[in-house]
Specification:
Blueprint lengths: L2 H39 L6 H14 L6 H19 L2 H4 L14 E3 L2 E3 L5 E5 L6 H13 L4 E3 L17 H14 L2 E5 L6 H4 L5 E4 L7 H8 L5 E4 L6 H12 L6 E5 L17 H8 L4 E4 H5 L5 H10 L4 E5 L17 H11 L4
Parallel strand pairs: 3-4, 3-10, 4-5, 5-6, 6-7, 7-8, 8-9, 9-10
Antiparallel strand pairs: 1-2
Helix pairs in contact: 1-3, 2-3, 5-6, 8-9, 12-13
Bound molecules: prephenic acid and manganese (II) ion.
The site of manganese (II) ion has 5 residues, from loops.
């Protein structure tokens, strides 16, 4: 082909490109108007029946050289782009996204601000086992300047034969001890029907890793106004994690904290793999406070200090650890809970005490 011919063809192509651009833009404006009309009528934007009808008509009139599959594919792309234009901000960007809300959300746990710039430490036993066990722990926390105590009353365990927790009795113990020492409490709730009741006893509802996609539980937590600590699932992507948070926030409960707790990988040196990169990613993508559970992510007391420091260096708004008066006799997670001496050394190493 001569140079002149090539130039001529490319010139024609450029002009068709411009016509296509004008037509596509014209089409997009019409689709936007249809979108506004649909919004007024309260009907869904996505209309697969209409799309199928248009595609069938186009294919019926297709004279080539593009085959029918290619025509379907190209027009489907156009429909999808038009649909995106029609969708409100609400669908395009999640409520939990930084794109919707630029400023950091500060979660108020009583008079304690989480996400306000000063990292917090949440500590306490894996399970609430007895009044005395919780009381001993609370005394150490109080003396160390820690204000938020954790303790599991409902324990989702891998085996049904393992200790399942004291249930509501455990929540009552937490409340009684916390009020004696002026502490705030966090405890996991596993049943949507318990959420309202739990608000009477605890200051923060934890939704555990195994329940991160228990959508009925997320909805129930979204219907109350008690702060929620949402754990990342064992094998959940960051996108799935944020969508779970969206379930809560979209029901009106804006007081949500995210917590990275390690993800499942092939590595056996730690109980899970602490995904430290999740911290800055979550902070970039979302405006919610981000904490790191160094106990369950590592399962190793000997590396909790460095991992907690790494979490804070990565921008975490807080760290959670397990501490027990006598870990050897603990009814759950015995190997990874710190005793009081280990806990004090951990605090010194991390420099988080008040
Ligand atoms: C349009 C966009 C989205 C719908 O899924 C179907 C079609 C399109 O771009 O053709 C327009 C539109 O909203 C409509 O015709 O109802
Ligand atoms: Mn535990």
């Amino acid at each position: 082909m001569s140079h002149g011919k090539m130039e001529e063809l490319r010139g024609r192509l450029d002009s068709v490109n411009l016509q296509l651009l004008e037509l596509l833009s014209e089409r997009a404006r019409i689709a936007q108007e249809i979108g506004q009309e649909k919004e007024k009528q309260g009907v869904p934007k996505y209309d697969p029946v209409r799309e199928k009808k248009m595609l069938d008509e186009l294919v019926a009139l297709n004279k080539g050289p593009f085959d029918n599959e290619t025509i379907r594919h190209l027009f489907k792309q156009v429909f999808q782009a038009s649909l995106k234009l029609q969708q409100t901000d609400h669908v395009k960007h999640l409520l939990v996204s930084r794109k919707r809300h630029k400023e950091d959300t500060v979660v108020s746990v009583g008079d304690i601000a989480v996400g306000g710039g000063k990292p917090i430490l949440v500590a306490g036993p894996c399970s609430v086992e007895s009044y005395e066990q919780v009381r001993k722990t609370a005394a150490v926390l109080k003396a160390s300047g820690i204000s938020v105590m954790r303790g599991g009353a409902f324990k989702p365990r891998t085996s049904p034969y393992d200790f399942q927790g004291l249930g509501v009795e455990g929540l009552k113990i937490l409340k009684e001890v916390a009020s004696e020492f002026g502490l705030k409490t966090i405890s996991e709730i596993v049943d949507p029907a318990h959420v309202e009741l739990a608000c009477e006893y605890i200051d923060v509802i934890q939704i555990g890793a195994r329940n991160m996609q228990n959508f009925e539980l997320l909805k129930a937590a979204g219907d109350v106004r008690t702060p929620v600590l949402l754990k990342r699932g064992l094998a959940a992507t960051i996108d799935e994690f944020l969508h779970s948070a969206e379930y809560i926030v979209s029901r009106g409960n804006t007081q949500v904290m995210l917590i990275e707790r390690g993800i499942r990988t092939y590595e056996r040196a730690t109980r899970n793999t602490l995904d430290i990169s999740a911290v800055p990613i979550l902070k970039l993508e979302s405006h919610l406070p981000v904490l790191v559970d160094v106990t369950h992510s590592t399962g190793r007391k000997d590396i909790m200090g460095p991992c907690a420091r790494a979490a804070l260096a990565a921008g975490a708004d807080g760290v959670m650890v397990e501490v027990h008066p006598d870990p050897a006799t603990a009814l759950s997670d015995a190997a990874q809970q710190m005793n009081f001496d280990e806990f004090r050394r951990f605090l010194e190493e991390v420099g988080l005490q008040a």
